[in-house]
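Changelog-linked ticket: MTE example.
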Amino acid sequence: MLIRNTDSGFIHPHPSEITPPSVYHGRRELLRLMAGGAAGSVLAGWASRDAWAQGARPGRGAPLAAAKSNVAGAVTMEKSTDYKDATSYNNFYEFGTDKSDPVRYASTLKTTPWSVEVEGLVNKPGKYDLEKLLKLSPMEERIYRLRCVEGWSMVIPWVGYSLSELIRRLEPQGSAKYVEFFTLADKATMPGLRSDVLDWPYVEGLRLDEAMHPLTLLTFGMYGEVLPKQNGAPVRLVVPWKYGFKSVKSIVKIRFLDKEPRTAWNKAAANEYGFYSNVNPTVDHPRWSQATERRIGEDGLFAKRRKTLLFNGYEAQVGQLYAGMDLRKNF
Ligand SMILES: Nc1nc2c(c(=O)[nH]1)N[C@H]1C(S)=C(S)[C@@H](COP(=O)(O)O)O[C@H]1N2
Ligand SMILES: [Mo]
């Protein structure tokens, strides 16, 4: 049974359906922990063991509890995109280039065990298990708009914590100026790798100060649940002021560099996809305008297009990062 919370537009299943057995049996313990503010890590721990492996119920992920974020700009009053739309209209080229390919084919993605390798100009390189990453910092729910370069947008309650929480602990060296992120590239489970539409693995990058910005979310869940595979399970980025392709999915490696890295889309078409890729209604894609956008789920003849906002509406938070830069040249 689905219950709609009309305040937020979230859809959550009935509590008896989402409660994992281990927690259900220790409900009193859970309530005690919740009172002490520790429930998030309990649920996160449970999620890391079982969630991606079996899921709480058919078609939906296991719960991933989170406190509401208090990061400025991390919440919007706009209605969240329907879960069904956000999980069936995706870009995840490793599973095909059609929007419907990821939901159809990503079930083969094996997300347990999972670890993220850290290398480059950093004092604490190594292989970090997902379990460890899940417990690194308290989970927050951040309701972000995400604007795809193709001209559509959505509003999603993401679950995770600021990437800066991880980066601080990794201790980047003074020479580190950029961070590079790599997606898994597994031919056996990712049919899209047979196509040479992109140079695999999918790579994205951020300047270190962009990566350290509190809005940049290391994301483990959405809609109060662990990430569905088509949305980049078990861990992805969400960089809400940049075009969606910067929000790299299913991350297996993070590298710290002194030079700007090439990115998958930049390698594919340098004149169309720059390193920065900040949402900018005044800088058109060479093949189409970026002035407006269509909100996913608002289809049909009379659905109005929305005006695209500079930095996707997060200018107050991130504009300073680009002070003095020519955003036409650094598109
Ligand atoms: N590894 C990987 N990450 C990726 C992509 C991809 O093809 N491969 N597509 C990007 C693009 S273009 C967008 S718009 C978002 C879409 O995220 P969503 O499917 O969760 O909405 O993921 C981004 N991350
Ligand atoms: Mo995109």
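Closing comment: Example verified and attached. The CA atoms of residues 121 and 203 lie 18 Å apart. The longest strand covers residues 152-162.
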